[in-house]
Amino acid sequence: MAAKLLIAGGKKAEAIKLLDTLRRESEPSATIFFELAKLHYEAKDLNQTESNLKSAVKLEPDNIWIRQFEVNFSKELGRYDEAIGVLIHISGLQPKNESYYDQIVQLQIKKNDLTTALLTLNKKEKNIGWSVNTTLKKAEILDNADRLNDAVNMINTLVLKYPKEKKYLRLIANMLHSNDKVAEAEPYLKRILEIDPNDNDARLGLVLMSKGKVNKEDYLITLAPLVSNPDAPIDMKIKELLTHVQQHASTGDTMLGKQLIDLCDKLVIAHPNEAKSHAIYGDVLKNNGEITAAIRQYEKTLTLNNKNFIVWEQLMYCLDDVENYDQLLITSSDAIDFFPNQAISYYFAAKSWIVKDDYKKATGLLDEATIISSGNPNVESRVLTAKGEIAFRKKEWTKAKEFVDQALLISQNKNADAMELKGDLCKESNDLKNAGIFWQKAKDLGGKSQRLIKKTDALKNN
User: Fold this and answer.
1) Which of 159, 229, 331, 453 is the most exposed place for a label (fewest CB within 10 A)?
2) pLDDT tens, 288-311?
3) What is the pLDDT of residue 211?
4) pLDDT digits (tens, 9 = 90+) for 236-262
5) In the chain, what is the straight-line distance between the N-terminal and C-terminal CA atoms, in Å?
6) How far apart are CA 325 and CA 323, in angstroms?
7) CA proximity to 143, closest of 270, 239, 231
8) How many CA atoms lie within 13 A of 363 on its CB side?
9) Environment class of residue 451 by beta-carbon count within 10 Å: exposed (0-12), middle (13-18) or buried (19+)?
10) Whole-angstrom Cα Rg for the chain
């Protein structure tokens, strides 16, 4: 109880000392080992976490709380087989608890072990009973395993059970669409209209089908009912949207961007607590130039799931674009704690310190980024640009130019920040013509920072 009070008061180091004393002086106790494991985990001491956790499990192998913590810990370390093994054990202790089966299936899908995932869902049905969600999950797995006919047959069991429900017919139609079986969707759309003659989406689908090939804009319109349906698996929706999101990223098509924003808005309403829905919305907003809105979506994603580094990286790029360096420093520091082997986080942390004129801290972080990156040209070019920025701020023009030229060489003239800094150096030597040229090149390369926009606008006004 004294240790619990210390924890509640934020004195966790003292709590660890007290629990260690108890561990040495009392009979072996799973509770003490478990509390120590949790405290060491919060302190990010993974070795001590694992050691104490193993001792707790050895003493109480059937303790659900301890074993679930073990599952989460194993998942974080990427030890999916170990996590699955523990979940199978505790599902045997509580065979009616569906969350264990769902966790097992999720991990088996991560391993791309789709056949075993289906067997786990069969076991879930045997122990708990049939459910719509389990049937939909089976269909999703079958679809991802390229077993389209089996997936359609699986959803057809729901159509037979609920003959007046349109949503399952629409799921089949969309699944066929996504697998380039557009013509085979026709009977399902007709059955939707038999149930509801006023269903405009089904009517539109048939009209488009009668005209031949469905164009991109019309096809995205037909996705709205699927995306809005909270019962449809989110992975199926992401699969449908992803090709269009990638096309939007490469083309910058504003009309496509507006349609994707509308669809992603529906997606987060249907799945407000799914990290995937907010992540893909963030990508669409970022690609559409709506950086502040993208930041909100990425931050929401991380509150739901902070295990995907790509989301951290996208958020850091966005914070850099809007020049929110206070938040960028916090975010990059957290990213380093969670993913210490990702060099780009050290670069963003260094960039934040440069803005705060702490060049010593910035240089240390840049050196770490260089070591970790192992010659990655993207990181190396950015690190050289940051070192050039430090030299520029110190008015060491020759050194700054050397760094910038190296950065541009390594990036094959594709580093927008280096191109911008090249323009800054031209301005310092009163070469405004070339300054404008380099700043415009920086914008053409995707430079979105407010400072860059201000520079080019000021030059135009002059």
Assistant:
1) 453
2) 999 999 999 999 999 999 999 999
3) 53
4) 889 889 989 999 999 989 899 999 999
5) 71
6) 6
7) 239
8) 7
9) exposed
10) 27
